Automatic annotation (TrEMBL):
SUPFAM superfamilies xrefs: Kelch motif
Organism: Tritrichomonas foetus
Name of the protein in its database record: Kelch motif family protein
Segments for region (Disordered): 24-48
InterPro entries in alphabetical order: Kelch-typ_b-propeller, Rab9_kelch_effector
Keywords of the record: Kelch repeat, Repeat
Pfam families for the chain: Kelch_KLHDC2_KLHL20_DRC7
Length: 398
């Protein structure tokens, strides 16, 4: 879109056939259509009926926990998920349930307390219509929500929500406003909002930056193909993403230089075709969890950001809330977790846990998916130190 102002209007976009091959990922989640996902992961091992889990040098511990609150959000996919560092809460909202109902609610999760609370919304200055595929980011205690769809209508509206009192405001923006779209990359750095990719009837590749002091959008063309439903997380002044593509490599959005590139990687990586996975930053690593694929079980992968090397992050069930029968043991003896996708996911440094919530499988009440990674981190640091002694890496890249 050219120099114009954003409006609350919506644009009708033709729905693609559910079985059509999308080179950079799907527009709408397959389970929302009642279809079986077509993408297939290329796992390191094939499932096999084995009963013994091999002992590895390090492992995270998987558990499932019930939230410690009387009210919890309805199970859903297509919701946004982000984190407010100032309030120490995860924030989710909107989305679509298994019955096809679109939501317009917002919920807060206190991760250490395992407690959900619904944010009471004051819509005097703006009301968000029910939708899925929106994305959100937090600056201070203000939640910014962009886009999404309630098919056939796609949106490019922007809302600001005060997370302390629930006041909603429609934000009028100017400049080179992004087209209405679903499932883009959306994050923030200092007082800027960064938007890339998504689906608007095509796969746009321009990088958009919004100054939240002037609310003027700027557009920066890129020499890279667009993607939608990509897993991503912000690390310093970069946003890294993976998946929804034909080939591997780590997507790197360099915020200061307004540049989107592919970072070459090594090691055993998850299938690049996977969509709707979770990507969460912890310590010097990014963990890749789940995503849509034909297989019902999955390994957990991580990438070391000092060397850009992928590796399998071994997981064990806690033996209390889950056991080996809740997953599959591969022919090499690795424990494979039941597949999830479209989840919200955060890292909690105080407890050194990764917590995922909502998404697929759709179950009410929805449990919290917990990975304890504290002990594994100590061993990973030791391994990294040994590898750097043998083959030092360039520490200049984040």
């Amino acid at each position: 879109m050219g120099n114009e102002e954003s409006t609350t209007g919506a644009v009708a976009i033709r729905q693609l056939p559910a079985d059509m091959y999308l080179p950079m990922g799907g527009m709408r989640m397959n389970d929302e259509k009642g279809k079986t996902p077509a993408q297939a992961e290329s796992p390191v091992t094939r499932p096999h009926q084995r009963t013994h889990i091999v002992k590895t040098a390090f492992s995270g511990i998987w558990s499932l926990e019930d939230p410690d609150s009387l009210t919890i959000p309805s199970s859903r996919t297509g919701h946004f998920s982000t984190y407010c560092d100032a309030l120490k809460v995860a924030v989710i909202g909107l989305g679509i349930g298994s019955d096809g109902q679109f939501y317009d609610d917002i919920w807060l999760l206190k991760p250490l307390e395992r407690s959900w609370s619904q944010l009471p919304l004051n819509s005097t200055n703006g009301q968000i219509s029910p939708r899925s595929g929106a994305r959100a980011t937090v600056i201070g205690t203000t939640l910014y929500i962009f886009g999404g769809s309630h098919e056939p209508m796609f949106y490019n509206d922007l809302y600001a929500v005060n997370l302390e009192n629930g006041n909603i405001k429609f934000v009028q923006t100017t400049g080179q406003v992004p087209s209405p779209r679903t499932y883009p990359v959306l994050s923030s750095h200092n007082k800027e909002i960064i938007l890339w990719g998504g689906y608007d009837g095509t796969w746009p590749s321009e990088l958009y930056i919004l100054d939240t002091e002037t609310f003027v959008w700027a557009c920066h063309p890129q020499d890279i193909g667009g993607r939608t439903n990509i897993a991503y997380d912000k690390v310093g002044d970069h946003i890294f993403g993976y998946g929804s593509a034909k080939t591997g490599g780590l997507l790197d959005i360099d915020i200061p230089n307004r540049k989107v590139t592919l970072q070459p990687t090594t090691g055993p990586e998850p299938s690049a075709a996977i969509t709707d996975a979770a990507f969460v930053h912890f310590d010097n690593y990014l963990m890749f969890i789940g995503g849509k694929a034909a297989s019902a079980s999955t390994l957990i992968y991580a990438i070391d950001l000092t060397s850009f090397r992928w590796f399998v992050f071994h997981i064990l069930p806690d033996g209390s809330t889950v056991s080996a029968v809740d997953g599959i043991i591969s022919d090499l003896g690795f424990f494979m977790l039941p597949r999830t996708h479209s989840v919200g996911c955060i890292y909690v440094p105080e407890s050194r846990e990764i917590i995922a919530f909502l998404g697929f499988p759709l179950k009410d009440p929805s449990q919290l998916f917990i990975l304890k990674v504290g002990e594994a981190l100590s061993l990973l640091h030791l391994r990294t130190d040994m590898l750097q002694t043998i083959a030092p890496v360039d520490p200049s890249h984040p």
